[in-house]
Each structure stands twice: as C-alpha cells, then as structure tokens.
Design goal:
Blueprint (H helix, E strand, L loop, with lengths): L1 E5 L4 H20 L3 E9 L5 E7 L4 H10 L7 E5 L6 E5 L9 H4 L10 H23 L5 H9 L3 E5 L5
Antiparallel strand pairs: 1-6, 2-3, 4-5
Helix pairs in contact: 1-4, 1-5, 4-5
C-alpha cells in the first residue's frame, strides 16, 4: 500500500492538499456540464466548426478556476491530530450549494492566519499550472496525490507493506 503524507513542517504540502481539494470539488461539479468550443469562423458552406466538450476540460473554465481558487483558502483552518501531531488544513466552511451555506454566509470571519496558505496556494499554481492542466485533461484520479507527491514532491510518498 502506498501512502502520501505531507510533511507537517512545510506549508507547501498542506497548501497543495487544500488547493487540490478545491480543484477536485469544482472539477467534479463541472464534469456533468458541457460547453461549446471551436472556431467562430463561418465556413464557405455556412457552417461553423463547434463541438461540445465537458466544461471541466474547457481552457476558459480551468483558467478562471485557477485564478479564483486561492480566494477560498480562508475557508480552511489548521488542525493538529492529537495522536500523530500531524498538522493539516481542514475545510470548515460549507460550500456554495450546501444547505447551511445561506446562513453561514451571513457570518463574517476575518483572520490573517490564512494569508500564508493563500500565498502558498498562489505560488503552487504559478509553478505547477501546466501540470495541473495536464492532470485535469488526462482526467487523472487522485489529483492531490498526483500533483502534491509525484509532480511537485511537496508531499512525501512512502510504501507501507502490510503482512498477511
């Protein structure tokens, strides 16, 4: 069994996990929707070359997602596991569409505590934007593991063997 753990002393690994959690959520929602892509030119016969693709594979959708996703880092808080002492970012805020979201958005939370997480998120996108696009285009599973462990080495990969 291969496990992926993020070094609790590095903000980058924890930020990568939070970032990819948000991206995976939006990609999952967008997979059910389609959008038209193609040329706006009209052919001599009066037709246009346009086709429908999953919204999640649209370059415009992905660009917009990557531009805005780090704003949601203030929806996370840093938690420490009482047993392992491993520190991770956990989402505490409901997402748009959740039943409690309308009530929750009436509350106002502000803290500078999330700023390092937001900065780390923006840095990861800046450095690994092409890899993120590639993984999404390949419809890769376990985006967080693929980007955070395999592509960027922000998280460690370790093989745990269990005896039968």
């Amino acid at each position: 069994m291969v496990t992926h753990t993020c070094n609790p002393s590095t903000l980058g690994g924890r930020a990568c996990r939070a970032l990819m959690d948000e991206i995976e959520h939006d990609i999952t929602k967008a997979r059910q929707k389609k959008t038209k892509v193609g040329s706006f030119r009209i052919n001599p016969d009066g037709t246009q070359e346009r086709r429908k693709i999953p919204l999640a594979q649209s370059e415009a959708f992905l660009t917009d997602l990557l531009e805005k996703v780090c704003e949601r880092m203030n929806d996370y808080k840093l938690e420490e596991d009482p047993v392992t002492k491993e520190r991770t970012f956990k989402r505490f805020a409901p997402r748009k569409g959740d039943k409690i979201y309308q009530e929750f958005k009436k509350l106002y939370f502000y803290s500078d505590a999330y700023r390092p997480l937001k900065f780390a998120c923006e840095t990861i996108i800046e450095e690994y934007e092409d890899e993120i696009f590639s993984l999404i285009a390949q419809e890769a599973h376990y985006l967080a593991d693929k980007l955070c462990s395999e592509k960027s080495d922000l998280c460690e990969t370790s093989a745990n063997h269990t005896e039968l």
